[in-house]
Amino acid sequence: MITNRNTSNQKVQASAIALLNLVMFFSSSEKATAQNGAGIIGIDHVGINVPDLATAIPFFSNVLGFTPVTQLGPIPLDAAWKNLNHINPNTGAVTIKMINAGTGASIEVFQYADNKGSRIQPNADDIGASHIAFYTSDIKATVSHLKSKGVKILGEPFLTPSGDTAGETWVYFETPWGSKMELVSYPDGKGYEKTSPKTVLWSPKNSTIEKVPDAASMDIEKNKALVEKHFALWNEKNAVKRLALMQEIYAPDIEMTDRNFVANGNNEINTFIVGLQQKNPDAGFAVKSVTAHHNIVRLYWENGPKANPAAVTGMDLFVIENGKVQKLYVFVDDVE
């Protein structure tokens, strides 16, 4: 009965999040249309060959923290299949493991028994060379973790200073079998996103809302208490105190979405708050009501000077992950 109850709770959680996903889905005309005439929606998985699963699976699970899920094989391959797929006639059966790599596409790992194919990794400039890039919110911490596991880091993290990917930090690393992979991080977004482009690249950092939240994020009373501090932050005019509150309430890579703009990270939100305070020095925010379920909190507010405290009203929607606000959606009521 306990197992059934847990399963039921997980279904309720997933349903609630799916409902919010549906709202967000239909709010974006780009997401509500097919990617192209072929009807392709997105990438399901990326496949790679490895010398042996005994080396690859512990690397993906113990080092990178991913979860092996399904397995097929060993599957004997007939001559016709080998010929069609350019496989050496003397190569043996294939075993395939699918790995859940967190938020985004899965990784399909192939091991061929008695492999007669090339065991030399392609050079970076070889046609057909490829790599997988993993997003991290703290690239320095991730690099330190990989180094502690004996992973070879190819250089030092590099912060792109300008251009479309300004704000992105990246570095390559090497797997135990010699494949090159990449870490990327851009908690404050990329340069091109600041120009309100028609199309924005998908990123796992923007997909917190799609995940079933952890147990800590489901504490409704804690979530409400966290959100009630939100406007203490927006009303605070002391920069040091305001930034301290930000670190307490907001995730470092928080995304705030207004009907007119998107702000990524605490620095951009802080800049917006300072501008708002300078434009309306006598106005302040006040909480009207707060309601919550699961890891989602809704806050109704008013803003204005003492003579007219409800000059502007609206509602903010918060998504809580790991005890911090990860997403903030701002709705301002139309003035009659």
CATH names the topology of the largest domain as: Nuclear Transport Factor 2, Chain: A
Integer average pLDDT: 83
Query: In the CATH classification, which architecture of the largest domain applies?
Result: Roll
Q: How would you classify the helix and strand content by structural class?
A: alpha+beta
Number of helical regions: 8
CATH class of the largest domain: Alpha Beta
Quick one: how many beta strands?
Answer: 14
Q: Looking across the biggest beta sheet, what order are the strands in?
A: 10-9-14-13-12-11
**Order of SSEs, N→C?**
HEHEHEEEHEEEHHHEEHEEEE
Identify low-pLDDT runs. 1-33
Shape: elongated
Question: What's the story with the biggest beta sheet?
Answer: 6 strands, mixed
Helix content: 25-40%
As a whole number of angstroms, the C-alpha radius of gyration is 24 Å
Task: Give the N-terminus to C-terminus distance in angstroms.
Answer: 54 Å
Portion in beta strands: 25-35%
**How many domains is the backbone divided into?**
3
What does this structure look like?
The chain is of the alpha+beta class and 336 residues long. It folds into three domains: 44-119; 120-206, 2,3-Dihydroxybiphenyl 1,2-Dioxygenase, domain 1, CATH 3.10.180.10; 211-332, Nuclear Transport Factor 2, Chain: A, CATH 3.10.450. It has eight helices and 14 strands. The protein has helices at residues 2-26, 53-63, 79-84, 139-148, 220-228, 230-235, 239-249, 265-279; strands at residues 45-49, 67-75, 94-100, 106-112, 133-135, 152-159, 169-174, 180-185, 250-257, 262-264, 284-293, 296-304, 312-321, 324-332. The longest helix has 25 residues, at 2-26. It is elongated, with a radius of gyration of 24 Å. The model is unreliable at 1-33 (pLDDT under 50).
